[in-house]
Amino acid sequence: MDRFIAMRVFTRIVELGGFGKAADSLHMPRASVTTLIKQLEAHLGVQLLQRTTRQVSPTLDGAAYYERCVRLLADLEETESLFSEARRNPQGKLRVDMPGSLGRLVIVPALPSFCQRYPRLELELSTNDRPVDLIREGVDCVLRGGDVLDDSLVARPLARLTQVTCASRAYLDEHGTPQDPDDLQGHCAVNYLSAVTGRPFALEFMDGATLITRALPGQLAVNGADGYVAACEAGLGLIQAPYYHVAAQIARGDLCEVLARWRPPPLPLTALYPPHRQLSRRVRVFVDWLAELFGNQNWDGGNDSMPSRIRGE
Protein backbone atom coordinates (compact mmCIF):
# COMPACT_ATOMS: atom_id res chain seq x y z
CA MET A 1 0.00 0.00 0.00
CA ASP A 2 1.32 3.42 -0.96
CA ARG A 3 0.40 5.45 2.11
CA PHE A 4 0.47 8.82 0.33
CA ILE A 5 -1.93 7.55 -2.33
CA ALA A 6 -4.10 6.09 0.42
CA MET A 7 -4.12 9.46 2.21
CA ARG A 8 -5.13 11.26 -0.98
CA VAL A 9 -7.96 8.77 -1.49
CA PHE A 10 -9.08 9.12 2.12
CA THR A 11 -9.13 12.94 2.02
CA ARG A 12 -11.17 12.95 -1.20
CA ILE A 13 -13.73 10.56 0.33
CA VAL A 14 -14.11 12.87 3.34
CA GLU A 15 -14.36 15.98 1.15
CA LEU A 16 -16.84 14.52 -1.33
CA GLY A 17 -18.80 12.34 1.07
CA GLY A 18 -18.64 9.09 -0.90
CA PHE A 19 -16.42 6.38 -2.34
CA GLY A 20 -17.86 6.65 -5.85
CA LYS A 21 -17.42 10.42 -6.04
CA ALA A 22 -13.85 10.15 -4.79
CA ALA A 23 -13.07 7.41 -7.32
CA ASP A 24 -14.46 9.55 -10.16
CA SER A 25 -12.53 12.60 -8.94
CA LEU A 26 -9.26 10.66 -8.83
CA HIS A 27 -9.97 8.66 -12.00
CA MET A 28 -9.62 5.38 -10.11
CA PRO A 29 -11.78 2.23 -10.06
CA ARG A 30 -14.11 2.19 -7.09
CA ALA A 31 -12.83 -1.24 -6.08
CA SER A 32 -9.30 0.18 -5.79
CA VAL A 33 -10.56 3.01 -3.60
CA THR A 34 -12.38 0.58 -1.31
CA THR A 35 -9.34 -1.69 -1.06
CA LEU A 36 -7.01 1.20 -0.19
CA ILE A 37 -9.25 2.39 2.62
CA LYS A 38 -9.51 -1.12 4.07
CA GLN A 39 -5.73 -1.43 3.96
CA LEU A 40 -5.28 2.00 5.53
CA GLU A 41 -7.67 1.26 8.39
CA ALA A 42 -5.96 -2.09 8.98
CA HIS A 43 -2.54 -0.40 8.99
CA LEU A 44 -3.66 2.25 11.50
CA GLY A 45 -5.77 -0.11 13.56
CA VAL A 46 -8.73 2.28 13.71
CA GLN A 47 -11.96 2.86 11.79
CA LEU A 48 -11.64 6.06 9.79
CA LEU A 49 -15.00 6.21 8.03
CA GLN A 50 -18.59 5.67 9.12
CA ARG A 51 -20.58 4.18 6.26
CA THR A 52 -24.36 4.40 5.91
CA THR A 53 -26.67 3.77 2.97
CA ARG A 54 -26.82 7.51 2.25
CA GLN A 55 -23.42 8.94 3.06
CA VAL A 56 -19.89 8.39 4.28
CA SER A 57 -18.52 10.53 7.11
CA PRO A 58 -15.34 10.44 9.18
CA THR A 59 -15.28 8.95 12.66
CA LEU A 60 -13.65 10.98 15.43
CA ASP A 61 -10.36 9.27 14.66
CA GLY A 62 -11.00 9.82 10.94
CA ALA A 63 -11.61 13.56 11.43
CA ALA A 64 -8.34 13.94 13.35
CA TYR A 65 -6.47 11.88 10.74
CA TYR A 66 -8.00 13.97 7.93
CA GLU A 67 -6.65 17.23 9.37
CA ARG A 68 -3.14 15.77 9.54
CA CYS A 69 -3.38 14.27 6.05
CA VAL A 70 -4.35 17.61 4.55
CA ARG A 71 -1.31 19.32 6.05
CA LEU A 72 1.05 16.48 5.11
CA LEU A 73 -0.13 16.34 1.51
CA ALA A 74 0.15 20.11 1.09
CA ASP A 75 3.66 20.05 2.56
CA LEU A 76 4.61 17.17 0.27
CA GLU A 77 3.41 19.00 -2.84
CA GLU A 78 5.32 22.14 -1.90
CA THR A 79 8.48 20.20 -0.99
CA GLU A 80 8.47 18.33 -4.28
CA SER A 81 7.98 21.55 -6.22
CA LEU A 82 11.10 23.05 -4.63
CA PHE A 83 13.27 20.43 -6.32
CA SER A 84 11.48 19.83 -9.57
CA GLU A 85 10.47 21.38 -12.84
CA ALA A 86 7.00 21.90 -11.28
CA ARG A 87 8.29 24.96 -9.42
CA ARG A 88 8.98 26.78 -12.67
CA ASN A 89 6.31 25.04 -14.72
CA PRO A 90 3.52 23.75 -12.44
CA GLN A 91 1.36 20.98 -13.79
CA GLY A 92 -1.86 19.14 -13.02
CA LYS A 93 -5.51 20.08 -12.61
CA LEU A 94 -6.63 23.35 -11.09
CA ARG A 95 -10.33 23.64 -10.21
CA VAL A 96 -11.62 27.22 -10.11
CA ASP A 97 -15.11 28.63 -9.57
CA MET A 98 -16.24 32.19 -10.35
CA PRO A 99 -19.35 34.23 -11.18
CA GLY A 100 -20.57 33.51 -14.69
CA SER A 101 -20.46 37.08 -15.97
CA LEU A 102 -16.95 37.66 -14.62
CA GLY A 103 -15.73 34.48 -16.26
CA ARG A 104 -17.41 35.16 -19.60
CA LEU A 105 -16.53 38.84 -19.91
CA VAL A 106 -13.20 39.22 -18.11
CA ILE A 107 -11.38 36.02 -17.15
CA VAL A 108 -11.91 33.71 -20.13
CA PRO A 109 -10.94 36.34 -22.76
CA ALA A 110 -7.66 36.85 -20.85
CA LEU A 111 -6.92 33.15 -20.27
CA PRO A 112 -4.77 32.58 -23.39
CA SER A 113 -1.93 34.51 -21.73
CA PHE A 114 -2.17 32.33 -18.61
CA CYS A 115 -2.33 29.10 -20.61
CA GLN A 116 0.67 30.16 -22.66
CA ARG A 117 2.62 30.98 -19.51
CA TYR A 118 1.71 27.68 -17.79
CA PRO A 119 1.08 25.13 -20.57
CA ARG A 120 1.15 22.10 -18.27
CA LEU A 121 -1.73 23.28 -16.08
CA GLU A 122 -5.22 21.96 -16.81
CA LEU A 123 -7.97 24.37 -15.74
CA GLU A 124 -11.42 23.10 -14.76
CA LEU A 125 -13.55 26.25 -14.68
CA SER A 126 -17.06 26.38 -13.25
CA THR A 127 -19.12 29.56 -13.51
CA ASN A 128 -22.12 30.18 -11.29
CA ASP A 129 -23.42 32.63 -8.70
CA ARG A 130 -24.15 30.18 -5.88
CA PRO A 131 -21.95 29.63 -2.80
CA VAL A 132 -19.49 26.77 -3.30
CA ASP A 133 -18.23 24.42 -0.59
CA LEU A 134 -14.58 24.31 -1.64
CA ILE A 135 -13.71 21.25 0.43
CA ARG A 136 -16.73 19.11 -0.36
CA GLU A 137 -16.79 20.02 -4.05
CA GLY A 138 -13.05 19.70 -4.54
CA VAL A 139 -12.55 23.31 -5.71
CA ASP A 140 -9.05 24.78 -5.33
CA CYS A 141 -9.93 28.48 -5.63
CA VAL A 142 -13.01 30.69 -6.01
CA LEU A 143 -13.50 34.30 -7.07
CA ARG A 144 -16.25 36.15 -5.26
CA GLY A 145 -17.63 39.67 -5.27
CA GLY A 146 -18.75 41.31 -2.04
CA ASP A 147 -17.72 40.99 1.57
CA VAL A 148 -15.89 37.81 2.59
CA LEU A 149 -18.20 35.87 4.90
CA ASP A 150 -16.12 32.73 5.54
CA ASP A 151 -13.10 33.51 7.71
CA SER A 152 -11.91 29.89 7.49
CA LEU A 153 -10.62 30.60 3.95
CA VAL A 154 -7.50 32.45 2.86
CA ALA A 155 -8.54 35.69 1.13
CA ARG A 156 -6.52 37.59 -1.51
CA PRO A 157 -8.10 40.96 -2.47
CA LEU A 158 -7.91 41.53 -6.24
CA ALA A 159 -9.84 44.68 -7.13
CA ARG A 160 -12.65 47.05 -6.27
CA LEU A 161 -15.07 46.98 -9.18
CA THR A 162 -16.97 50.09 -10.22
CA GLN A 163 -20.76 49.62 -9.96
CA VAL A 164 -23.47 51.58 -11.73
CA THR A 165 -27.23 52.01 -11.57
CA CYS A 166 -28.93 51.58 -14.93
CA ALA A 167 -32.20 51.00 -16.76
CA SER A 168 -33.34 50.47 -20.32
CA ARG A 169 -34.32 53.39 -22.52
CA ALA A 170 -37.88 52.03 -22.77
CA TYR A 171 -38.16 51.90 -18.96
CA LEU A 172 -36.94 55.48 -18.59
CA ASP A 173 -39.28 56.73 -21.35
CA GLU A 174 -42.21 55.22 -19.42
CA HIS A 175 -41.22 56.03 -15.83
CA GLY A 176 -38.95 59.03 -16.20
CA THR A 177 -35.28 59.42 -15.28
CA PRO A 178 -34.61 59.84 -11.53
CA GLN A 179 -32.41 62.83 -10.72
CA ASP A 180 -31.43 61.83 -7.17
CA PRO A 181 -32.13 58.91 -4.77
CA ASP A 182 -35.12 60.73 -3.28
CA ASP A 183 -36.65 60.76 -6.77
CA LEU A 184 -37.01 56.93 -6.81
CA GLN A 185 -40.52 56.86 -5.39
CA GLY A 186 -42.77 55.31 -8.02
CA HIS A 187 -39.91 53.44 -9.66
CA CYS A 188 -39.40 49.68 -9.56
CA ALA A 189 -36.35 47.42 -9.56
CA VAL A 190 -35.36 44.01 -10.79
CA ASN A 191 -34.56 42.57 -7.39
CA TYR A 192 -31.47 40.41 -6.91
CA LEU A 193 -31.85 37.63 -4.34
CA SER A 194 -29.08 36.89 -1.87
CA ALA A 195 -27.70 33.36 -2.23
CA VAL A 196 -27.22 33.31 1.55
CA THR A 197 -30.50 34.73 2.90
CA GLY A 198 -32.82 34.41 -0.09
CA ARG A 199 -33.91 38.02 0.44
CA PRO A 200 -33.52 40.79 -2.16
CA PHE A 201 -30.72 43.29 -1.86
CA ALA A 202 -31.66 46.96 -1.49
CA LEU A 203 -30.22 49.49 -3.91
CA GLU A 204 -27.23 51.39 -2.50
CA PHE A 205 -26.00 54.89 -3.28
CA MET A 206 -23.01 56.86 -2.00
CA ASP A 207 -23.46 60.55 -1.17
CA GLY A 208 -19.87 61.43 -0.35
CA ALA A 209 -19.05 59.15 2.59
CA THR A 210 -22.72 58.50 3.40
CA LEU A 211 -24.41 55.30 2.28
CA ILE A 212 -28.04 55.64 1.19
CA THR A 213 -30.22 52.54 0.72
CA ARG A 214 -33.52 52.24 -1.13
CA ALA A 215 -35.68 49.12 -1.26
CA LEU A 216 -37.86 49.30 -4.39
CA PRO A 217 -40.79 47.09 -5.34
CA GLY A 218 -40.47 44.89 -8.39
CA GLN A 219 -42.42 42.30 -10.34
CA LEU A 220 -39.34 40.13 -10.88
CA ALA A 221 -36.62 38.79 -8.60
CA VAL A 222 -33.66 36.76 -9.88
CA ASN A 223 -30.70 34.91 -8.40
CA GLY A 224 -28.29 35.04 -11.35
CA ALA A 225 -26.28 37.93 -12.78
CA ASP A 226 -27.00 37.24 -16.46
CA GLY A 227 -30.75 37.04 -15.84
CA TYR A 228 -30.53 40.21 -13.77
CA VAL A 229 -29.05 42.22 -16.64
CA ALA A 230 -31.35 40.61 -19.23
CA ALA A 231 -34.39 41.62 -17.17
CA CYS A 232 -33.12 45.20 -17.07
CA GLU A 233 -32.65 45.18 -20.85
CA ALA A 234 -36.26 43.96 -21.15
CA GLY A 235 -37.45 47.11 -19.32
CA LEU A 236 -38.48 45.45 -16.06
CA GLY A 237 -36.79 47.91 -13.72
CA LEU A 238 -33.63 49.48 -12.36
CA ILE A 239 -30.58 47.40 -11.49
CA GLN A 240 -27.15 47.93 -9.96
CA ALA A 241 -24.30 45.90 -11.42
CA PRO A 242 -20.53 45.96 -11.87
CA TYR A 243 -19.72 48.20 -14.79
CA TYR A 244 -17.92 45.45 -16.72
CA HIS A 245 -21.20 43.50 -16.93
CA VAL A 246 -23.20 46.31 -18.54
CA ALA A 247 -20.47 48.25 -20.36
CA ALA A 248 -21.30 46.84 -23.80
CA GLN A 249 -25.04 47.47 -23.34
CA ILE A 250 -24.37 51.06 -22.24
CA ALA A 251 -22.03 51.62 -25.20
CA ARG A 252 -24.74 50.34 -27.58
CA GLY A 253 -27.43 52.48 -25.93
CA ASP A 254 -29.47 49.44 -24.81
CA LEU A 255 -29.00 50.53 -21.18
CA CYS A 256 -28.50 53.97 -19.67
CA GLU A 257 -26.65 54.80 -16.48
CA VAL A 258 -28.70 56.88 -14.04
CA LEU A 259 -27.80 58.62 -10.78
CA ALA A 260 -24.11 58.66 -11.78
CA ARG A 261 -23.36 61.18 -9.05
CA TRP A 262 -24.55 58.64 -6.45
CA ARG A 263 -22.88 55.47 -7.69
CA PRO A 264 -23.06 52.38 -5.44
CA PRO A 265 -19.99 51.49 -3.37
CA PRO A 266 -17.30 49.64 -5.36
CA LEU A 267 -17.65 45.85 -5.19
CA PRO A 268 -14.66 44.08 -3.60
CA LEU A 269 -13.40 41.15 -5.67
CA THR A 270 -11.52 38.47 -3.75
CA ALA A 271 -9.80 35.16 -4.50
CA LEU A 272 -10.51 32.58 -1.79
CA TYR A 273 -8.92 29.20 -1.19
CA PRO A 274 -8.67 26.72 1.70
CA PRO A 275 -5.70 27.10 4.06
CA HIS A 276 -4.31 23.72 3.02
CA ARG A 277 -4.03 25.00 -0.58
CA GLN A 278 -1.93 27.98 0.51
CA LEU A 279 1.31 26.20 -0.38
CA SER A 280 0.02 24.82 -3.69
CA ARG A 281 2.12 26.14 -6.56
CA ARG A 282 -0.84 25.71 -8.94
CA VAL A 283 -3.09 27.92 -6.81
CA ARG A 284 -0.40 30.50 -6.19
CA VAL A 285 0.47 31.07 -9.85
CA PHE A 286 -3.20 31.41 -10.77
CA VAL A 287 -3.98 33.87 -7.97
CA ASP A 288 -0.84 35.85 -8.80
CA TRP A 289 -1.97 35.99 -12.43
CA LEU A 290 -5.41 37.25 -11.36
CA ALA A 291 -3.79 39.96 -9.24
CA GLU A 292 -1.72 40.96 -12.27
CA LEU A 293 -4.77 40.94 -14.55
CA PHE A 294 -6.86 43.16 -12.31
CA GLY A 295 -3.89 45.29 -11.30
CA ASN A 296 -3.41 46.29 -14.94
CA GLN A 297 -6.84 47.97 -15.03
CA ASN A 298 -8.15 50.85 -12.95
CA TRP A 299 -11.40 49.10 -12.10
CA ASP A 300 -12.37 51.94 -9.75
CA GLY A 301 -11.86 54.73 -12.24
CA GLY A 302 -15.01 54.81 -14.37
CA ASN A 303 -15.89 53.89 -17.91
CA ASP A 304 -12.70 54.95 -19.67
CA SER A 305 -10.63 52.62 -17.47
CA MET A 306 -12.39 49.46 -18.63
CA PRO A 307 -10.75 47.15 -21.19
CA SER A 308 -12.04 47.80 -24.70
CA ARG A 309 -13.33 44.23 -25.07
CA ILE A 310 -15.64 44.90 -22.09
CA ARG A 311 -16.69 48.35 -23.26
CA GLY A 312 -17.76 46.73 -26.53
CA GLU A 313 -15.36 48.66 -28.76
From TrEMBL:
Keyword set includes Transcription regulation: yes
HTH lysR-type domain span: 1-59
CDD domains xref list: PBP2_CrgA_like_3 (cd08472)
InterPro entries registered for this protein in UniProt: LysR-type_TF_proteobact-type (IPR058163), LysR_HTH_N (IPR000847), LysR_subst-bd (IPR005119), WH-like_DNA-bd_sf (IPR036388), WH_DNA-bd_sf (IPR036390)
UniProt keyword list: DNA-binding, Transcription, Transcription regulation
Any one GO molecular function term: DNA-binding transcription factor activity
Pfam families with a match to the protein in the record: HTH_1 (PF00126), LysR_substrate (PF03466)
GO terms under biological process: DNA-templated transcription
Family (UniProt): Belongs to the LysR transcriptional regulatory family.
Protein name: DNA-binding transcriptional regulator, LysR family
The species this protein was found in: Pseudomonas indica
